[in-house]
Every structure is written in C-alpha cells, then in structure tokens.
Amino acid sequence: MTYRVIQWAPGVVAREAVAGVVGHPDLELTGAWVHSADKDGRDVGELCGLDPLGVLATRDKDALLATDADCVCFTVGRNWVEDPTESFEDLLRILRSGKNVVNLWWPTLVYPRALAGDFYKDLEKACLEGGTSFCTVGMDPGYGTAGLALSALTLVREVSSVHMYQVMNNAHWEGPGITKFFGFGQRDSAASPILRPGVTTNYHATTLHLLADAIGTEIEEIVEDHSVIYADEAFEIASGSIPAGTISGVRYRVKGMVGGQARVVVEHVERLREEDFPELEFRGDGYRAEVTGLPSIRLDMTVSAPPDYTGDPVAVASAMSVVNAIPRVCAAPPGVLSLLDLPPFPSKNSGTRN
Ligand SMILES: NC(=O)c1ccc[n+]([C@@H]2O[C@H](COP(=O)([O-])OP(=O)(O)OC[C@H]3O[C@@H](n4cnc5c(N)ncnc54)[C@H](OP(=O)(O)O)[C@@H]3O)[C@@H](O)[C@H]2O)c1
Predict the structure, then answer these.
(1) Which residues form the 2,4-diaminopentanoate dehydrogenase C-terminal domain (predicted)?
(2) CB of residue 76 inside a 6 A radius of ligand 1
(3) 73, 115, 153, 283: which has the fewest C-beta neighbours closer than 10 Å?
(4) From the CA of 74, how far away is ligand 1's center (Å)?
C-alpha cells in the first residue's frame, strides 16, 4: 500500500523528511504547507535543496486538508524556551480532518498522556473525531533516548534504574543560536537559557514518564541538576571564539525520583571538543541507554553519515524517526500513540540518495 503524505512546514529537518518520503517505497509526497509567503507556490523539492518534485507548496491549509492524503508529517519549528501551544490548534485541525500525523514539533509530545493540562484529552478527541492516529518521535525526546532504553529493557529481568544520555558536539553549528542557548563562551551559567530552573524538566519530563510507565513505576518528584566546564585556553568554533575561562561544555540531568532514588534519568552532555568529558568514554555524537539491573545493559548508538553527505546525520535520523513510522501510524487504530505502542518501523529504502 502507498500512503500519501503532506509535509507541514519544510525547514532544516524537514528537508531530510522530504528526501525520506521520496525515497520510501510505501510513501508518496502529495503536498506541503509553508509558513512564509515567499515559499508559496514553489516546488517542494527546490525549497528543500533537492531536485524538483512536481509538488507545489501552499499556504492554503483548507485546500491541503481537503485532499485525500493519508498523513501529515508535522515539522513546524519552534523556540525550545517559549510557550509551545501556538501550532497546537493546527495539529488538532489536521487530525479532525481525517489525516494521521507523525510529529516532530514540540518534542515533549513524545508522551502526551503525561502532560499537564488538556493536551492529551484534546489530541485524543481530535483523533477519534477524524478516525486518525497521532505519534511524536524524534531523537531526544524520541528514539535516541526512550527508544534505545526500551530496546535495552527488553532483555532485563530486574530494573533498578534507567539512565538515558544524549552526547553532542556543537562546535560545527553556524550562527549564534546553539551557542547562546547553552551559554557557551559565557562566564556565568545563569546566562544559559537551557539551565534556567524548570526548562530541562519541561523538555524531558514526558520522556521520564514514558520510561516510568514502561517499567511499571510512578515518578514522585522530578529533580534537575547541571554542571559546566570552562575552556582552559581560547579556541574557535564555527560560530566564533570561545575565550579562555568561559563555558565550553554543559552537562545536565533530569531525574525521575521514586522513593528517594533516581529511577529514570535523562542526561545531556553538550560539548565543543571531542576530548571533553573523557570520563564518559563516548566518541562522536549519539545516545546511550544504561539500564542497571539484572542483567545491567549499556547500549551506545553513534550517528554519523558517509563522508560525501553534506547534511547533518542527526537531522536525518530525527526526520526518519517520523517518516519511517508513517505506515505504522496510518495502520494503527485511531488515538494518541507513543513509542510504547508502535512495533519497529525499519527503513525500506535500499539506497537512493537525495
Ligand atoms: N525530537 C527531536 O529530536 C527533534 C530533533 C530536531 C528537531 N525537532 C523539532 O522539529 C521541528 C523542526 O525543526 P527544524 O530545525 O527543521 O525547524 P526550522 O527549520 O527552524 O523550522 C521548520 C519550519 O517551521 C516554520 N515555522 C517557523 N515559525 C512558524 C510558525 N510560527 N508557525 C508555523 N510554522 C513556522 C518554518 O517556516 P518559515 O521558514 O517559512 O518561517 C520552517 O518551515 C522543531 O519543532 C524542532 O524542535 C525535534
């Protein structure tokens, strides 16, 4: 069966999603919604830096939702720190219109049932009205943390704790965005938006609850902590200079506490030099799931691309975590899904590179 897909808001990651849809034997790209007026009417392939695809982007939501597409790949961009509800109404409308949704936007929707407020109830209602399914994947939150941990837990008899890591080298990012976000190059970690109290909890709480439900426990309290390292000497990164004595690496943890113990933990290690945080013994960019129990299991997953690939391999992985899920999500009964509900969804593309 071929599933018809609308790409909603093609941006940096969606470039990889569009290439993924085009290369997937069970998927067909039939439309795209764009946010900016200057993208209206342009070929989606051209917008994504690919060959023309003969599919024109539009800003007309009604026209797109009136088509017979099966699924929307929802990749609207957002600022991690601001209120994320802006595009929620669009999401509900798409689900009510009879289109399934695979989602990357607002990654905390990886487990909506754990969100405070009416988000889960509203999504479930929209799915039932439209006869549709909704699932958020991504890398973190998403497959890199929760998915990897669920895989390790499959082999375990007794679980004391689950510790999930993201380890990234951020030195290649151009522009000030990531540098400012983590506070790299600053003297005081109070300048780092991600380290403001509550921000990391906001971002990772649903991942913790997903894992807690998976192992049959209930989190009593979420506790966050962080540490930073300082540059011993000045060095250059793509976005500028890191002066000596300023922040050159950030490590933060968000811990789901049960009976005073950290039973489920998400940890981020954001560095600028491969040699920093040597105690982790983690080379490259990737994810680690560490289950302590019987047996204890550690899974390390590094993400890289062939040397001739100019894109970001983590963006490819993020995009494919939703694109490859489309057939499963379309075939599922109506409702809100998570990684706990979906069988594996491997790639079927044998190698056409876009
Ligand atoms: N879970 C994960 O691991 C993971 C990993 C990567 C990304 N993500 C998420 O995936 C999403 C896409 O990331 P990205 O890097 O591709 O984002 P991006 O390039 O910054 O933006 C994606 C699209 O969003 C559109 N957009 C911007 N503001 C909008 C608004 N107010 N309303 C509607 N559309 C708007 C942009 O359109 P214009 O350019 O026309 O304004 C662009 O087409 C983000 O929400 C990000 O948080 C998740």
Answers:
(1) 206-343
(2) yes
(3) 283
(4) 9
